[in-house]
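Margin note from the TA: students keep mixing up input and output lines. Inputs are the sequences; the output is the structure of the whole complex. Example:
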Amino acid sequence: MPKRLYVPLHQHIGQPCEPCVVVGQKVLKGEEIGRAEGFVSAPVHAPTSGTVVAIKEHTAGHPSGLTLLCVVIDPDGKDQWSPALQGIENPLSASPAAIRDKIRAAGVVGLGGATFPSFIKMSPPQGKPVGLLLINGVECEPYLTCDARLMEEHAREIVAGIEIMLYALQAKQCIIGIEDNKPGAIRTMTQAVGPFPSMRVQSLPVMYPQGGEKQLIEAVTGRQVPSGGLPIDLGIIVHNVATALAIRDAVLRGRPLISRVVTVTGKGAVKPANLECLIGTPIRDLVEYSGGMHPGVRKLVLGGPMMGVTMQDMDVPVVKGTSGVLALLQDEIADQPEQACIRCGHCVQACPIRLVPCEMAWQAKNNQMDAMADLHLFDCIECGSCAYVCPSHIPLVHYFRFAKLTIQADRRAQQRLEVDKARTKAKELRVQQEKEAKERQKEAMKAAMAAKKKAAAEAAPAAPAVTSAPAAPAVAPSIEATPPVESAAGQPPQADAAAPAAESEAEIKAARAARAARAAQAAREAKAAKQQS
Amino acid sequence: MSQTNLLLSSSPHVHGGDSVSRVMQTVIWALMPATAMAVMVFGWPALLVILITVASCVVTESLFVKLRRRPSTLGDRSAALTGLLLALTLPPHTPWWVCVSGGVFAILVAKQVYGGLGFNMFNPALAARVFLLISFPVQLTAWPVVNPLFGEHAYSLSDSIAIIMTGHQGGAELVDAVTAATPLGQYRTETGLGKTVQEALGGQFGFDELQAAGGLVGGSLGETSALLLLAGGLYMLRKKLITWHIPVTMLVGCLLPATFFWVYDSAHYPDPIFHLVTGGLVIGAFFMATDMVTSPVSIKGQVIFGLGCGLLTFLIRTWSGYPEGVSFAVLLMNAVVPLIDQYTRPAIYGQQSIKS
C-alpha cells in the first residue's frame, strides 16, 4: 500500500472529470471522487479508503511533462470498501442497458492503452449489429506481459466478463486472439472457454503491432476496417482482456476500476515483474517494490518501448491506461544521429498501414504538409515500426507527429479564419443596415422639418394681423417638431442647422431644450460606454 | 527528482540496430567471394585495379565532403562499396588512370553532385562504368585471357604493376595470348558474320557453360563467377538486406524472352543458361539493380523495376550495338524509378474497403 496516492481526474479519452470530494473528506474504497463530464468521459473512484489531503496539479505521464489535476489521498490502511457498491446478481437476465450503466458507473475504460470509455463500445449504434466480439489478448507492445499474465491467472474471470459482454452486445461469437509466444495464456484461456461454444481462442504469429485494434481485426478475420471508419462498420467490437475482467468486476460486484496490472521491466529494472497496483500509485513505489533500478538508467518510459512516453521523474502516478514502466539502459535505447535516407524501403515493408514513410519524411523535411496529408498521414498509427527498422536512424514517427500537429493547427487556424470572416461579414451587414436605418430616420426628420417650416411659413403672414395670439399656432408645430429632433440625437449638425432656421422665439426655445436633452443623452451614452469598456 | 540524467524523447525508444554502415558492410562482405575469385582468376593486376578504384572513390568522397564543409561520410562505407562495385565491372588489366577517372566520376558526378548518399538518381558504379565505356572504349574492351594467380604463366607482382601503371604488357612471350573476346562479344561478332551460335561459341573458342558458371572465363572482374555472386546474393537475402523481388524478376525478365527466342531459333539465339552465366547478369541482378538508393521502395515497384532491367538487358544484348547491356538496362530503369515509386504506392490499410 503506497503512502500517498495521486489519482488524476483525466485518465481516459474525452472530457476530464470534475472533482466531487473536498479536501479533508474521508473516502471509502470505490467511492466516486471525480464525476464524469459529458458523454465521452468516465468517472474516477477512490482506490482505497482514506483522506483526501489535496486536490492539486501533479506531474503526469505527459510527453511534455505537463501536469494534471489529481485527487491526493492518504490511505488509512483499512482498505474499506464502500457499502454502496452493488452488482447485478444475474446479469444474463438483466437488461443490456442496466449492464452498460454499471460499466459506465464503474469508470471502465479500454485497458489496452487507448483508455476509451468502454460503455460506449458496449452501446453499438442502431442498425449496426455486432457479429463478432474480438478479445485482444495480444500484448500492445514488446516488453509488456501484463495481459498474458492476467490470462494465465484470471482466465475464468475474463471468460465470465466475455459472457456478459456477449449478452449485452447481443453478439453471437467471440474470438480471443493471443500471440503464439504466450503458450501459457493460450492454454489457460482455451481451457476456460471450453464450456462456451460461442467462444474460441485463436493463436496468432508474433508480430508487432498486432495489438492495435485494426491490425488484430486484419490478423484474425482478414478484413480491413475502412480508413476513417470504426470496427463496428464490419460488425466487430474489440475489447482488451483486462477490460473484460474489469467489466466482470463492475457488473457482478459493482466494483469500479481502481487497480490494474502493470509490467515493470527493462534492463534497468532489478527484478522485472507484473504488479497489480492501485490507480494513483506513484511509479517510484512500483519500481521500489519490484526491487529498484540499476544505476545508469537513461530512460524511464511509461507504456511500451515503441509508443510509450518518457518520464522526467518517478512521481508520475499509474493511471488506467498504464500498461508498463520501462527502465532502459543506454544499450537498449535508440540514440543515434540521423543520417540521410538511403531509400532501402525497409520502412515501406514494415508499415502495418502500408504507408510510404520514407516519402512522407521527405515531404515533412520540405514542409510539404498538404503532400503529407495526401500520402495518408492521418492513417498513421504511430506504431514506430518504421523508425525501428530505419538504418539511417531517421525519427520518422517524430516527423509524422509534428506534421499531424502542424496540419491540425493549420486547420484550426483556417476554421478560426472562417469564423472571423463570417463575423466580419455579419458586422458589415449590420453596419449597412444601421446606416440605412439612419438615412431613413434622416429622411423622416427632413420631412418633418419641411412640414414644420411650411406650418411656420403659413403662420408668419398671419402674425402681424393678429398680434394678441401669435404664439399659440407657432408653439404647437414646434412641440410637434421636437420629438424627432430628440430621437435623432446621433446627428447634431443637421439638428443644429435646423435651429437658426427657426424664426419665432418659441421655436428657439424649443430647439434649446432639445439641444440640452441631446447633451444629457450623449453624456449618459458616454458614461455607459465607459462602464462597458 | 531522483534522476536528473533521464532522457526525454519521442517514441519509439528502442531500435532494431540496423545502420547504414552495417548495410554497406554487409554488401561488401557479400561481394568478397566473387572478388577473391576475380583475383584468383586474373592475378595481381586484378587486385591492383580493385585497390586503385576503391581508393580513388574513398579519397574523392572525403575531399568533396570536406569541400562542402559537411561531416565526414566515410563511416557509412558507401564510397568503398561504390569503388568495389565499379572495379568489378572493369576489365582485369584496366590502366590506373582509367580506374581513377572512373572512381572520381562515380563519386563526384554520379553521387555528390546530387547531394551525396541517398540523393543520387543513378547507380554511381554503373554510371561511372558507362562513362568509361564511352570515353575509353579501347581500354574497357581489352579482355585478357584467364591467368590464375598461382598458374603456370602467372604475372609477377612487378609485371602486374607495370601492366596497370604503364600499360606495358610485360614480357614479350605474354603479348600474343593476352586478349581474347568474351563469350558475349564472341557471340555478337560471329553471329553478326552469319554464323550460328554453335559455330560461334564452339570449336576453337571452346565455350563451356559449367566453366563459365565457376568463373574461369574472360570478362570483367565481377562477371566471372556467377555461382559465387549468387552465393553473395543469397547471403544478402538471408541478412534481409534485400528481398528476392529485384534479383529474381531481373533474371526472369532476361531469361524468359531468351528462352522463348532460343526455342524459336536455337541457331541464332543462345540458350538462357548462356545468358545467365556470361556477362554481368548475376552481379547486375543481385548487386547493381538492388542498390537501395536507385531502386523503388515498394515491392510492387521493385517487381516492375526488376522485370524492366531484365528485359532491357536481353534487348540490348541481342539487338543493340553493344554485346553487354546490364549497365545500360539498370541505368535506364534507374531513370524511371521516381515514376515507378509514384504509381506503385501500396494500397493502404482500409482504403480498398472504402472504394468497394
